[in-house]
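Thread: NAP complex, take 2
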Amino acid sequence: MRILVTGAGGQLGHDLVDVLNGCRPPGAVSAPGSAHDEVFGLEHSRLDVSDRHRVAAAFDALAPDVVVHCAAWTAVDACEGDPDRAYAVNAMGTRNVAEAARRHGAHVVYLSTDYVFDGTAPHPYTEWELPNPVSVYGKSKLGGESELDPEWTVVRTSWVCGFHGSNMARTVMRLAGSPGPMRFVDDQRGSPSFTADLAGALTLVARERLPGTFHLTNQGVTSWFGFAQAVLRAVGGDPGRVEPIATADLDPPRPAPRPANSVLDNVAWRALGMTALPAWEDGLARLVAALGSGIEAPSQS
Ligand SMILES: NC(=O)c1ccc[n+]([C@@H]2O[C@H](COP(=O)([O-])OP(=O)(O)OC[C@H]3O[C@@H](n4cnc5c(N)ncnc54)[C@H](OP(=O)(O)O)[C@@H]3O)[C@@H](O)[C@H]2O)c1
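Output below.
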């Protein structure tokens, strides 16, 4: 199978290309099985998905059977200030990928987000609940979902952390090295998800071309306050340094509203009899160990 990964320089795209190539990404539970696929990982510099002609040309050159569309403008607060760019990349970029995929008969797996929900539900969101995004980022990603054909795949995930790129685990690890209080919100709840684990599940989704919408996250729920405490514990720091605050007390306030409840129930995945992703605490321990080990990023095709 010929598999194209967009956004291959991002934290998820990077690990996904590794797993598809049969390499073990840093922090993965086990080595992936041997790979028989031809994998094309295109970073932003090699493929700008908002450029319709470049997307068409890339599909013509590579003729993929499956495309895992990880590319997105993920700077949630910056999206709020530049909606045109958010829609150009996240919604129109996906339209461009969809158009080219249709022309080549390729299956699309689109990465989407917990931010398509408003976060007001008192329970974890199932795949069949009605999205109602409250931020430009969430609206633009939902726009991307609406560009897909019904037999293609949407994978919504949340609170993504990986070895490559910036994320909350790395932020807390950096802050741990400097003195002073650390304040994190305790009124936003979600499931931290780790690229090394997500990449394995996504490989399965892509190879099987599983149709429909899936919520795929590591298991268990915490707040950003609880997550920061766990990161400190994992690096041998003092979790007592972290102070819980309310979102309303953030100074300065963040431009983009966040869903208070970001928890995604992985119902569809369970219903297929698939193995749930490991507990988030387990994924965090493996990520911290990999980051602390000074492992160099494996080379990418
Ligand atoms: N991060 C999260 O917490 C989170 C949560 C839920 C869902 N997701 C979704 O999961 C997917 C992967 O996220 P991630 O955490 O790996 O994000 P990431 O590290 O920001 O990766 C996204 C990649 O897309 C690239 N990109 C941006 N604009 C592009 C364009 N116009 N054309 C092509 N590539 C472009 C970025 O390149 P540059 O950096 O060079 O611009 C980056 O390498 C995304 O679809 C995201 O919406 C993420």
